[in-house]
């Protein structure tokens, strides 16, 4: 196994290196071969999902501000610790899956780089300075009409149009609240849409009900550690990094760290008024909708006629091209040599039978010469004047295309 400098599995430009005095060979990173396999196969390729600071002064009197104030979650919304991706992934790879078993020697502890560190709901509550409160368990049943009306801000939202709730349909303040929950409370890298159970959780929190956050985060991390093959990213990396370093877990030489994502501010949603208008456009009147549909149908029909005309023209052109290719191939097969627009024909003249006997590949001459004078004129037309008669002589005719046709040339 390679020691020393390693990459953190993230291409983020926010990665930095930290110098340490610990030699990499002195650090035992995995409890055994199984943990090392889990790390290399499932966790190393994953990108961590960091917590985010919330600028609460940008959201006065919002559901999030009221919840943070009533539950004492100020540290949950504060600036997160630096995250160390390798350390976090090793935390999950070596996780103690018997952490809640009182019969073991390592109840509420887990192994990281040769050390057993404390990890429990109480440790989490202490880290976030959570006050002791009377918690309200999440109900098993919800009035979904009430839940949807609260989240979407309108009375006709339930039943949903699609199978899931949509992030961009939430009220402006609840979209900010949902982003906060997706990073710091119940992390997920997918927030575009979400199931009914998550909508109930958002409603329970945003409507002012208190939960045991220490227990919730503990249960979330335990479940995530047992689902390493599910494809989910390592969550709560800032908290886990801070917990490990506080318990004396060493860092590798030159180990990279990653800064948390940008804080959640009033600019996080961009222009909320314009975006909400784009997400919820006013419906068109029925008459206007019918007019637009007829216009679209007319345009599509016209485009179809034009396309058919183009296809017919292409087919006719293709047929013409095919015919020209056949003609060219026929001319090539005649094996005649074109010279300046004329055709050269080799032949032998038979004086005895007064008949032209042509010899050249691919062409047969059927025309017979009817007499010496006519024969002499035809033989000398456009060619060298023949010499004295002989029983058989060879001549060359230099005839144009029209003259060749007049002499009755036929291809074999």
Description:
This protein has 412 residues and is α+β, with helices and mostly antiparallel strands. It folds into three domains: 15-279, no CATH class; 285-333; 338-411, no CATH class. Helices cover 40% and strands 12% of the residues. It has 13 helices and twelve strands. The strands form five sheets. Strands 7, 8, 9 and 11 form a four-stranded antiparallel beta sheet that branches. Strands 1-6 form a two-stranded antiparallel sheet. It has a two-stranded antiparallel sheet with strand order 2-3. A hairpin with a 2-residue loop joins strand 2 (109-112) and strand 3. Helix 1 (33-43) packs across helix 3 (85-93), helix 4 (121-127) packs across helix 8 (213-226) and helix 5 (144-152) packs across helix 7. The longest helix is centred in the last third of the chain and has 48 residues, at 286-333. The protein is flat and about 100 Å long. 22% of the residues are buried.
> Largest beta sheet, briefly?
4 strands, antiparallel
Please, how many helices?
13
Number of strands: 12
Indicate the low-confidence ranges by residue numbers.
1-13, 273-282, 337-412
Instruction: Determine the N-to-C terminus distance.
Output: 81 Å
Could you state the oligomeric state of the chains shown?
single chain
Which structural class fits the helix and strand makeup? Answer: alpha+beta
CA-based gyration radius = 44 Å
Mean pLDDT: 79
How many domains is the backbone divided into? 3
Q: What percentage of residues falls in helices of 4 or more residues?
A: 40-55%
| Percent in strands | 5-15%
